[in-house]
Amino acid sequence: VSTLLSGSLTTPSAKGAFVVPTAFESIASTTVGSGGSSSVTFSSIPQTYKHLRLILFVKGSSAGDTYFRFNGDSGSNYTRHYFYGTGVTPTSGGSSGETLGYVGYNPSSTHFQTAIIDIYDYTNTNKFTTVKSMAGTGYSGGGYILLTSTLWRNTDAITTMAFASPPGGTWSENSSFNLYGM
Q1: In the chain, where does DSSP find H-type helix?
Q2: pLDDT tens-digit series, residues 19-29
Q3: 134 with 147: CB under 8 angstroms?
Q4: Mean predicted lDDT score pLDDT of the chain
Q5: For residues 35 and 94, what is the distance between their CA atoms, to the nearest angstrom?
Q6: Comparing C-alpha atoms, which of 38, 76, 16, 67 is closest to residue 172?
């Protein structure tokens, strides 16, 4: 991950030459200590970047969903879509009028889930905010892969993002939440 974030990987341009992709700059990181935590919040998010990326390595004390909330908005302002698979059968769905954004489901309280969350154009107050996430975990000899999206139907710039622990549990020790600006 550090190689990817440092911008040392290259991508081909249209002419065949390699160019360095836009780098990510670390804004904040949190690692849950012993005893767990009921929530993790990034506050005072700087308004100086174009996009945000979060990288999570998390598990809860119980299996469950990973949700987020922007700026403390608990109104029915989140539209969510998901596509997931367990290696055999893909499933998809969605909902609107939700009170939380959605990252994905971790079916295990013993395996960590890795998630990459991209928040596009988070300071633009002329449109709603779009979020894309990819998550996965291994469990019971198999795997669980998710692709999700959330539309936050609010035109406020994002200044705070909170992650509630899975329902009925806490974030387990060593769960890490990392916020980057691009």
Answers
A1: 2-6
A2: 445 678 999 99
A3: yes
A4: 87
A5: 34
A6: 38
